[in-house]
Specification:
- The protein is 69% helix and 5% strand.
- The longest helix has 24 residues.
- Strands 1-3-2 form a three-stranded antiparallel beta sheet.
- It is built from nine helices and three strands.
- The chain is mostly helical.
- It folds into two domains: 63 residues, Winged helix-like DNA-binding domain superfamily/Winged helix DNA-binding domain (Arc Repressor Mutant, subunit A); 138 residues, Up-down Bundle (Four Helix Bundle (Hemerythrin (Met), subunit A)), CATH 1.20.120.530.
- β2 and β3 form a beta hairpin.
C-alpha cells in the first residue's frame, strides 16, 4: 500500500485565509487591534503574498480594514456594528425557520433540545471556566440549523460571513457564565416553537432572543 501523503491541493491563499479566519475566531486577532503585514506573516505562517490576498478577502467581509502600506486593523465591534450583525443573524434565523416549517416537521430538533437542556442543567448546577466556550458551541448549533433551512447558497454564505463577524464580537464581548442560563432557556423556547410547528411563536422567540442578547451587552 502506498503510504505517501497526498499533497495539499488547496491554493496557498485559500489556506492563508482559513488561518486568518481561525485566528479571528480564536481571538488571536482581536477587535480594534492593529497588525502589520510582517506581524501577520509571523502569526499565520504564510508568505506575504498569500497574506495580502487573505486580508483582501477578509476586508470584503468587513472582518478587517486594510491600511495601505501599513497593515490592517481588525473590525471594531462597536455598538452600532454589533447591532447590525445581530439583527442580520436574527433576520436570517427567522427566514430559515419560516422555510423549515413550510416544508413540514423539522428534523433533528430532539438532539438540539437535548444538547441545550444538558448545557442548561450544567450551568444551573456547576459553573466552570470551561462552560462559556462549550455553551457557544451549543448556542451556534441552533443558529447553524436555522441557516441550513434557508437552502439558498447565497443566503447561507451571508450567514457564514456574518457568523465570522459575530465570533470577533464575542471575543470582545465574551459570553459570561451568568448569561448561559437565560440564553439556553431562550433557545429552548425557539426549539419548542419549532417542534410545535408554530411559525409566529418561533419568530417571536427569535426576536426576544435578539432583544435579550443586546440588552445583556448593554446595547
Amino acid at each position: 500500500m502506498n503510504m505517501t501523503p497526498k499533497p495539499d491541493t488547496q491554493p496557498q491563499y485559500d489556506r492563508a485565509f482559513d488561518a486568518l479566519l481561525q485566528a479571528l475566531r480564536a481571538g488571536k486577532l482581536r477587535s480594534g487591534t492593529y497588525f502589520s503585514m510582517p506581524n501577520l506573516v509571523e502569526e499565520l505562517g504564510f508568505p506575504i503574498a498569500a497574506i495580502r490576498e487573505a486580508t483582501k478577502r477578509a476586508e470584503q467581509q468587513s472582518l478587517l480594514k486594510i491600511l495601505p502600506k501599513r497593515g490592517i486593523t481588525v473590525m471594531d465591534a462597536g455598538p452600532e456594528f454589533t447591532r447590525h450583525c445581530m439583527d442580520m443573524r436574527a433576520t436570517l434565523d427567522k427566514e430559515g425557520a419560516r422555510r423549515l416549517l413550510a416544508r413540514g416537521p423539522v428534523q433533528g430538533l430532539d438532539a438540539l433540545r437535548d444538547s441545550h437542556q444538558q448545557m442548561l442543567t450544567r450551568a444551573q448546577q456547576n459553573m466552570t471556566p470551561l462552560l462559556p466556550p462549550q455553551a457557544i458551541t451549543v448556542d451556534l448549533s441552533l443558529h447553524d440549523a436555522l441557516a441550513a433551512g434557508l437552502e439558498n447558497p447565497l443566503l447561507v454564505q451571508c450567514y457564514a460571513e456574518n457568523r465570522n463577524r459575530i465570533a470577533v464580537i464575542q471575543n470582545s464581548r465574551p459570553l459570561l457564565q451568568d448569561r448561559i442560563v437565560p440564553a439556553m432557556q431562550e433557545h429552548l423556547s425557539i426549539i419548542a416553537a419549532l417542534q410545535a410547528g408554530d411559525t409566529q411563536k418561533t419568530i417571536a422567540a427569535i426576536d426576544l432572543h435578539l432583544v435579550q442578547t443586546l440588552r445583556w451587552w448593554g446595547l
